[in-house]
Amino acid sequence: MSLAQGRPYLAIPGPSVVPDRVLAAMHRPAPNIYEGDLIEMTAGIARDLRAVARTAGDVAMYVANGHGAWEAALANTLAPGAKVLVLATGRFGHGWAEMAEAMGYEVELLDFGKRTPADPERLRAALRADAGGRIGAVLATHVDTATSARNDIAALRQVLEETGHGALLMADCIASLACDRFEMDEWGADVMVAGSQKGLMVPPGMAFVFFNARAAEARARLPRVSRYWDWAPRAAPEQFYQYFGGTAPTHHLYGLREALDMIAEEGLEHVLARHATLARAIWAACARWGEGGPMELNIAEPAHRSHAVTALRIGAPHGARLREWMAREAGVTLGIGLGMAEPGTPEAGGFFRIGHMGHLNAHMVLGLLASLEAAMHALDIPFAPGGVAAAAEVVGHAGAEGGHRAAG
After folding, report:
1. Which helix (H) or strand (E) holds 121?
2. Quick one: residue 393, left, alpha or beta (phi over 0 = left, psi -120 to 50 = alpha)?
3. What is the mean pLDDT of residues 277-305?
4. Is the CA virtual torsion 237, 194, 154, 136 positive or negative?
5. pLDDT at position 407, please?
């Protein structure tokens, strides 16, 4: 008997759950795009996006997904034929490299596999080997959505400083913005890219490129940038249409305005702490289950794991069976093991991911984990008992600490 009736839960690592407040804000007639409240609201959105990114720099907004943000970041800083160094810790690092190659850039790839973050010392060696200073940019995912590996962007900037290399540092925060702590200015990222559909809790369709003065200077040195991708008029528009190179994504903007208000009301520090706590609860459950079965966290070291997504190994065909059972019997959709094995092969059925980003609370996570435990019972997948209890302990301790602070 299926028990999937009721509201479905999309527990994939993006698109994330869209809050009712955001949906309600988007459910309205089309506005005037030439004058009125929309113009002032959009300027406020740009300001508040910069606050979430922790930057005093600029932001350009695009009607695009994260791939569009990748392209815009490169198109505004490097002439075709320039060289980029890509630090890959999963499928999305490789994806950015493929984008760069397709755009006519020379790509040097440092592949760190699927289970570890980027090693700053390998970056140091690559920069020292670049005697002619040909590398124009270092590209790194802050969090690779496929593997859940989180890279230390500040450590990468430190290597650039210590070697005296002039390359720009670009960070992909599509999976991590408003989930994992990211300090653009403090950590020294020159360019950062993000999307609307994950920690910002808005449906897919908007992409953002944040950039500092060094990156703006690189843009100014280029002989040309394609009219649509050019970030200069988008970041400092003289007329409203320049924000988006044409018609604005009006209803996405209303949703984004509401989402940014929700983040401000909760407080960004609390948003980050909530994600960290709920991530630890998921890790605690999965680690306990793995003591008596095949489940294994893809990233062994907690400090290297994302607070937005958890990639898991459980062996074929258990991952595929779990995802199928969870959707059919519990109304929960888990993420596929993207990039962990060749699609269509038996090995691909041995992985899955849990997205825990954006509009998320304790009962959603605990319900998800209890459903996962029920699935393993139903499918006779070996596991050690006590996973849900371990997660509840993490949540309970966090709640007790919060209560003590409130009382104090």
Report:
1. helix 120-129
2. alpha
3. 98
4. negative
5. 41
Backbone angles phi, psi at 320, to 5 degrees: -65, -40
Strand blocks (E) in 142-177: 168-172
Owner of token pair 């690592």 = 13
Give me the residues paired with residue 305 across strands: 149
248 contact partners, CB below 8 Å, separation of at least 6: 33, 38, 42, 240, 241
Q: How far is residue 240's CA from residue 101's CA, in Å, rounded to a whole number? A: 33
Distance of CA 284 to the CA centre of its chain: 22
**Strand-strand pairing, 206-211 and 296-297:** unpaired
Please count the other Cβ atoms lying within 10 Å of the Cβ belonging to residue 46. 18
Q: Is the pTM of this model over 0.90?
A: yes
Paired strand residues for 10: 333
**CB distance 282 to 391 below 8 Å:** yes
Place of tokens 């006519």: 104
Whether the CB-CB separation of 237 and 230 falls below 8 Å is answered with no
DSSP reduced 3-state for 273: helix
Do residues 142 and 151 touch, judged by C-beta distance below 8 A? yes
Q: In what order do the strands lie in the sheet with 332-336?
A: 9-11, 332-336, 351-355, 309-313, 296-297
What is each CA distance from 12 to 104, 192, 350, 359, in whole angstroms?
33, 23, 16, 13
Spell out the residues 6+ positions from residue 31 whose beta carbon is closer than 8 angstroms to its own: 37, 38, 250
pLDDT tens, 299-328? 999 999 999 999 999 999 999 999 999 999
**Exposed / middle / buried, residue 373 (Cβ in 10 Å: 0-12, 13-18, 19+):** buried
DSSP 233-256: HHHS-SSGGGGTTSS--HHHHHHH
Q: Which residues pair with 137 in a beta bridge?
A: 84, 168
Residue 343's identity, in one-letter code, is P
